[in-house]
Amino acid sequence: MSSDLWQVTWFTTWVAVTGTLVILPPGLALAWLLARRQWPGKSLVETLVALPLVIPPVATGLILLHLFGRRGLLGHWLEHTLGIEVVFTWKAVVIATAVMSFPLLVRTARVAFENVSPRVEHVARTLGAGPWRVFWTITLPLARPGVIAGAVLAFARALGEFGATVMVAGFIPGKTETLSLSIYHSVELGRDGEAAAFLAVSVALAFVAVWCSERLLRRTAA
Amino acid sequence: MSLEIARLRLPLASFALELDARLDAPVTGLFGASGAGKTSLLETVAGLRRPADGRISLDGTVLTDSAARIFRPPERRGVGFVPQDSALFTHLDVRANLCYSQRMRHPATPPGISYEHVCDVLNLGSLVARRIGSLSGGERQRVAFGRALLAAPRLLLLDEPLASLDRELKDQILPYLKLIRDEFKIPMLLVSHSADEMVALCDDVLVLERGRCVRRGPPAGLFVVSPRPHHELAKPDDPRPLVSGSD
Fold it and tell me: pTM for the whole thing?
């Protein structure tokens, strides 16, 4: 049992980290575009990105299931051209957590970018830095606390993700078994001791994540 | 230096900035009430705004030409810009702020003005290890000047460099502006709504009103100079006033 606990803990952490890393580049790019540029379809994209926050996670999971299922639009293509099966594998867990975390990262990072004065970026341009270098040397460092906060939120959301995951990845012991799925499963089987162990690990993980982010934020502010 | 602005048109909120001028004085002042289009003009020269129409060239290099569809981005203009709030990089210390332009400089460009020279002239030596948040208003402004100078610009744009400072600090910073002018010989375009600064620093002044140049000339011909401390714009029908006292 204890080996299971570690395996589940490791898998959950790995999925949450991977999911956060996967959404970081597109999430920051989108957050920047929303904060700094006007483009056609902007409000549509804004709404689409926010949807997973509002619709029930199970519904998001169902949409993903249809998209990535064998007969789904993306699933069919992935299986036939790349030979990748998604549904009911660890990949489905990563996709579910990534989609659910995405809005949190984008919204937080967007506010952080909006709070960087465009004038500071303008001055950097006149000092010889192109737009890309201004982003890396000025915008991103100044927005760092917000970006870190967004990434931690995304990670925390991924740790606890349940509804979408269970739809698109199911509960396959040793394959797609995350902490929140295990808690539910243990309670269902009446194994209260096991549930308590999973619960303790969940709380400990969340505690460490928040504590690390607070430390990082304080170091940035100092 | 010669900055040629031809048939420039930039629509603003309630009027359009329209200017046709050739500026070749060492220090040119842009004078006018707030909202007259002075800052917009600086931003257009710096490449931070794109004019609807017109052509701007600096010493023969075209910066903007709407007809030829040329728009040189700000990082390739060699035009330094010091905004009113100094816009220092708060995540870097003073030294890193000063060295930013050297880090960004294209490797092919000659070194230009040295770090030591700038620190010496602007008296920045004791500040280099400080954090931006710990600087006073006057210190911030000096660091902003230094940072702009180290990019070795061909033209320096200063937007109300003294406006955010109180009277006493103004008197402390003004000499530094004169030093910059005399020591580095970089031509300057100075925006202000203070006649005192125009008289103290400029060789040529353009008076802007709702986006148009309504009068132009050396400050001695434009301003009534009272014995201190306040100069004001002379009425157009005044007999040619004279500058009295020293600057």
Answer: 0.85
